[in-house]
Every structure is written in C-alpha cells, then in structure tokens.
Amino acid sequence: MSDPRTPVQRASFLIQNRLGLHARAAALFVQTVAPLDADVRVSKDGETVNGKSIMGLMMLAAGKGSSIDVEARGPAAQEAIRALGALIADKFREAE
Questions:
Q1: Which of 3, 13, 50, 53 has the fewest C-beta atoms under 10 angstroms from its C-beta?
Q2: Per the residue annotation, which of 7, 22, 58, 94 is the catalytic one?
C-alpha cells in the first residue's frame, strides 16, 4: 500500500511534435525522468505504462494530437511533471 504522505502530481499533456512519441522522443522522455526520485506512469486510452520505459512509451502509440496523462509519485514528483511539461512543450526538441 502506498504511503498517503508520498507527494503525487498529475498532469495531462497534448503531444505536439510532428512524429509523436516515437523512439527518439520516448528516449528523451525517459532520460528526463530516469534520474529523478519519482515513479512515473503514463496513460493513454486506458493503457498505462512505466514512464521510465522506452518500449512502454512507444507501445502507447501517442501520435501528434494525442493526449497523455502523467502521474508522478515520490519526492521529485513535481520536478518530474515540470520537466516533462517543458520537454513536451518544446516538441521534444524537434525541428518541425
């Protein structure tokens, strides 16, 4: 059972880059959250995957215009959500 005192942050994001959450974008997503002390889960259309798994993220097939829900749990939950929001807003650093 999870500790009710564990910080939890949730946010929904719209995937805006042209290629969506493909291999390179998924790798950047994982690189962003991997060093953080937070358990990150990503959901789309009822499927939830580990946000620190490139393959899991790719399985969501989140193309441009898709909405994903992110939940981060742990001491760095807020930092994880903030960093992912910036990465997604920057279109995973892709030139359009």
A1: 3
A2: 22
